[in-house]
Amino acid sequence: MEQKDYYTILGVEKNGSSKRVKEAYRKLALQYHPDRNPDPSASSKMKDINEAYAVLSDPRKRKEYDLMLEQFGGSAYGRFRQNYSEQDIFRGSDIGQVFEEISRIFGFRSSDQVFQDFYGPGYRTFEFRRPGFSVKAFVYSGRRAGRAAGNPQFQLGGPLGKLLKHALKKQWGFEFPEKGKDRTDTIDIPPDFAMNGGRIQYTYRPEYREFIVNVPRGIRDGQRIRLRGMGERGKGGGEPGHLYITVRVRKPLKETVRNGLKNFVSMVTGKGK
Fold this sequence. Notes:
Blueprint: H1 6-10, H2 18-32, H3 40-56, H4 59-72, H5 76-83, H6 86-90, H7 95-106, H8 111-119, E1 123-130, E2 133-142, E3 153-156, H9 158-172, E4 183-189, H10 191-196, E5 198-204, E6 209-215, E7 224-227, E8 243-249, H11 253-269
Parallel strand pairs: 4-8
Antiparallel strand pairs: 1-2, 2-3, 5-6, 7-8
């Protein structure tokens, strides 16, 4: 996988504010918009810009990416994309709204048309209007492997998405498939295992389910490992949530007890002075 850096793509500092991230995106989106820039490479560049903005404008995704950068440096992008699919990256993003503003001001094609050219017909905006009420959200409607044709997955993120789903349910009793809730847990590993990485058996105790977890080399205390699809089941055909395991790097109990006794003896005998 080609290695990239979201901060370099947008040309912002790693401590740049969310306002700075949005300003940089607007400037680059205007520069590389396919309706303005005929260069064949502009579309590829625009896709990189969209992805970088969707990640860096989301506090949770940005924090996780920053941890990857700190730990893995130049290979952080590849590690990050192992955990986040394209749908995951754009879910809940306001990128459609920002892109639509640019299109409206400069007379470009709508965000629907451009994003469908980039990512396929699944990406579009969904607009709902009622007297005195209107809401527009950026959604993904696509099919996943193993699902029957005609059973789309709708992903509505952010406050507008929640408002839209509530309105449709209240007015017509219509329900969107909903993603299952994520689960969290912790796992203790010794320092040498954290340094070298490897496979470890893990039991999710609430359900006594056993998994083999791949621990990446050099993982640090407090970082998380994601097990995709191992969270709660989705509703109405929605995809399951994920299981996030927080790693705690701990010395083995025997070593801790031994060191404690050694320190105690040293203190009593005065050899520790």
